[in-house]
Amino acid sequence: MGSHTYDSDRGGEDEAFSPEPQNVIWTVPNAISFLRILSIPVIAVLISKRYLIWSLVVLAISSASDGVDGYIARRFDQVSRIGQILDPIADRLLIICSMLALGWAHILPWWLLIVVGLRDVVMLLEVLLLAQYDYGPLPVHFVGKAGTALLLMSVPVLIVADLSVRPFFQVLHLIGVAGAIWGASLYWIAGLIYILQGYALLHRDIRRRSRRDHVD
Q1: Number of other residues whose CB lies within 10 A of the CB of residue 71
Q2: pLDDT tens digit string along 140-187?
Q3: Contacts of 35 (CB under 8 A, 6+ apart)
Q4: Which of 42, 154, 173, 186 is the most buried (most CB within 10 A)?
Q5: Burial class, 9, CB count within 10 angstroms (exposed 0-12 / middle 13-18 / buried 19+)
Q6: How far apart (Å, rounded) are the C-alpha atoms in residues 120 and 112?
Q7: What is the chain's mean pLDDT, rounded?
Q8: pTM
Q9: Which CATH class is domain 13-215?
Q10: How many CA atoms lie less than 13 Å away from 69 in the CB half-sphere?
């Protein structure tokens, strides 16, 4: 985290109920998070090769581990700064890699993958720009959490829907695509919110520096 701080309590409810993060790396929750990240390319390969049942099994284990590491971190006071970074990274990698594999397997339209991927590229550029002014990543907004949740939930729905061509599974496919579209929409709305927040921070920082230079 950079030397700047944010003015409001936008850190979210999670910070209010979590222990103070520590500067440690080797903890059980972090080990679980590392394993979860390592499982993501496995899931993507299984989907792209259309081993759909196995991909669902690995995806279920990976998703369960996300809740387990959070519980252990809070229960045994092992909340760490790197752990707070690994979780959103794992979510985004899972979204991008899974959707790439779904597109490769012709289960999901490619344009949806491009929409989601472009948003993450824009957010990465904003993070790099803010880092130039000693700002860390912006606090996660609830709209972004909702979009991420919808995108993550649409992945197993689309995989299950591709197991059969029966009417029920076709309807399930439409539900999965609709969930992915709504998730991508919320994803971009959150992205616009982050862009506006970043602009406000940089504008304030530039004004402060200009005022300081004028005084000097």
Answers
A1: 10
A2: 889 988 998 899 899 999 999 999 989 999 999 999 999 999 999 999
A3: 65
A4: 154
A5: exposed
A6: 13
A7: 82
A8: 0.74
A9: mainly alpha
A10: 26
